[in-house]
Design goal:
There is one protein chain. α1 (3-26) packs parallel to α3 (55-75), α2 (29-49) packs parallel to α4 (81-95) and α12 (252-265) packs antiparallel against α13. The longest helix is centred in the N-terminal third of the chain and has 24 residues, at 3-26. The chain has 13 helices and no strands. It is 63% helix and 0% strand. The termini are far apart. It folds into 2 domains: 1-123, no CATH class; 124-300, no CATH class. It is an all-alpha fold and 300 residues long. It has helices spanning 3-26, 29-49, 55-75, 81-95, 125-137, 145-160, 167-180, 196-209, 213-219, 230-233, 237-242, 252-265, 271-291. It holds the Pfam family DUF3632. InterPro entries: OpdG, Oxopyrrolidines_Biosynth-assoc.
């Protein structure tokens, strides 16, 4: 892509994303879903019918598609039917036949910059979702309480249907930031950190919407991206000090620490945190009993 074309696409993306933000702020989730559906159709059509599509230009459209999906997930009520509709749109993308333009049919399917193809996978999705969590999700003031819960719940939904690449790493980071990092229990004007009483409900929403996804990851994590993002996957200081936990990724030992940490928080002296921590602790104990997770996960 030459410099003038790049500038044109950058201006186009800025305008489109501003419009998406405006629709999300108004709470018009149906319009967001329509925008996403239209974007999928346009990208699919371009890749299917254009003899020699410029992959760097198509990548711009794909990045804008995932931006719209992330903004929609943030604005839709966690656990609501609209998040189901959004999940179905992403699942639909994964069911589409791998696409090749007419001139390439019969040859190797061209890949995008992350090595993935359309639509045998979700090209650039993991990259964009991870970027949201590394650059925005944990920055105080960029998310509302509801947006934290909404996007966390959508992560759980993605993992529950086996979409791991990207969501699994972001899910691990939410466990890390909530249960392995020392942070104020409640909002503190002198602190730049998001308080625990804001992240804990988001973690609970994720746990509730993930089905058996978490236990699958703990016992057999299929995600290779985890080692590439230590800021999201490595142990927080509390877990590191406890000893005996692998340095990154999902593990039975780490699961056990999370359970123990929730048990501690259930006696924190802050009523809402105690309530939430006990609820999530009991869910995780029930999860290990239901799925037959190793005995190493039982609390002391």
């Amino acid at each position: 892509m030459d410099s003038s074309t790049k500038q044109k696409f950058e201006a186009y993306s800025m305008q489109l994303r501003a419009a998406i933000d405006e629709v999300a702020e108004k709470g018009d989730e149906e319009s967001l879903l329509n925008t996403i559906s239209s974007s999928i159709n346009n990208i699919t059509s371009q890749l299917s019918h254009v003899s020699a599509p410029h992959h760097d230009e198509v990548e711009v459209h794909i990045h804008n598609l995932w931006y719209a999906c992330i903004q929609a997930a943030k604005s839709m009520d966690a656990g609501g039917y609209l998040q189901d509709a959004l999940l179905r749109q992403i699942q639909t993308v994964k069911t589409l036949t791998p696409l090749q333009p007419p001139s390439n049919r019969g040859s190797t399917e061209p890949a995008f910059s992350d090595g993935y193809t359309a639509w045998s996978s979700l090209p650039l999705f993991a990259q964009d979702l991870i970027n949201e969590f590394t650059s925005r999700y944990y920055k105080r003031g960029l998310y509302s309480f509801e947006q934290h819960r909404n996007l966390a719940g959508f992560l759980g939904r993605l993992v529950s249907v086996g979409i791991y690449d990207g969501p699994a790493l972001c899910m691990l980071s939410l466990f890390r930031e909530t249960l392995e990092v020392s942070r104020p229990l409640a909002a503190n004007p002198d602190s730049k950190e998001i308080p625990l009483d804001e992240l804990l409900p988001a973690l609970g929403q994720l746990i509730g919407d993930s089905g058996f996804g978490i236990s699958t990851l703990v016992t057999n994590c299929p995600v290779v991206l985890i080692v590439s993002y230590p800021e999201l996957s490595s142990l927080g200081e509390l877990a590191s000090r406890s000893g005996g936990i692998p340095s990154s990724g999902y593990s039975p030992e780490r699961w056990r620490f999370w359970i123990q940490r929730l048990e501690e928080l259930s006696k924190s002296g802050v009523a809402q945190i105690e309530h939430d921590a006990k609820l999530f602790h009991d869910w995780m104990i029930g999860e290990q009993d239901t799925t037959g997770l190793p005995h190493i996960m039982t609390t002391k």
